[in-house]
Amino acid sequence: MRWENLRDDVTSQSMLPIEVVAPTPDRGSGRAGLGTPAAAPIASDDGEPIAIEIRARSIINRVPGESRVPFRWTINPYRGCGHACRYCFARQTHTYLDLDAGHDFDSKIMVKVNAGALVRRELTDPRWAGEPIAMGTNTDPYQRAEGRYRLMREIVAALRDAANPFSILTKGTLILRDLGLIADAARRAAVSIAVSVGCTDEALWRAVEPGAPSPRRRLEVIERFAAAGIEGSVLMAPILPGLSDDDEHIDRTIATIAAAGARSVTPLPLHLRPGAREWYRDWLRAEHPDLLPLYGRLYGRGSYAPAHYQRDVIARVQGAARRYGLGPVGPATSRRLPAQRSTPL
Ligand code: SF4
Questions:
Q1: Ligand 1 close to Cβ of residue 146 (< 6 A)
Q2: Three-state SS for 284?
Q3: Residue 12 clears pLDDT 90, i.e. is over it
Q4: Residue 203 Cα, ligand 1 centroid: separation in angstroms?
């Protein structure tokens, strides 16, 4: 496994060296289902869930100029994600570590144990201008490992103390642990939270997001935050061709999102970047081989479905949102990233 010249963030072109540290003793919050690695080298694809503790050199990352994402700065305390979504666009980042983009991404979780201290230090740097910081842009900050490491508590506390605006996108109901802290921060600076729910079909959730809390529990996060005076948004992503892009799925999902009290919904049809592309295709081939021709037509030429398909899906989501009095419906291409070479689907 390479431990040098590691790319810290899929949205960052900089290669940041990181340092592996000895595992910390139990922090009193359990192991979150994660073991500690045996002596190096860490075995790839052995299926063993482990936390690999690392010491990052810096934590607030600048998004490269060519990225068409609506934020300039990010914090990502974890690499890899136990939520194990089949389609996760961050999968490829694990290959920079000589781990694979499949099971290793789901089970070999890099934990930046000094994230909280780094955030405090970087926020007080005289060159820092107090710009908004987005979290949950690469891997999920409230994934299971956070139950043990509590890095987000330290990060949110540092942002609150600096009155620095921030946003959090997650599928993790663990964010409710920090509701009071986030509400406190929201009294001092602009804070927004969002959960991602592509659809509310339970069978589909178990198949494509096997490590994530159920969509209904994610929407309870929106309800709880709304009750605390913080209206949350929903990233309706990804909408899966042939699986959740029909009117019935869209209608049911929008109805549930509206009932949860979401402020807005942003639909985003599936995109399949390298890494996710192969992992998702293997699942599709095993579970829905009849859909392979459709996916070949939509993703045969690249990571993004054709514009006409995206326009159609988004228009139908907008129609459903109007029917349920939900709005505004945001733009749909917020996470478009620089193009990469794609393998055939
Ligand atoms: S929750 Fe987000 S970061 Fe985690 S696996 Fe799913 S898509 Fe990837």
A1: no
A2: helix
A3: no
A4: 18
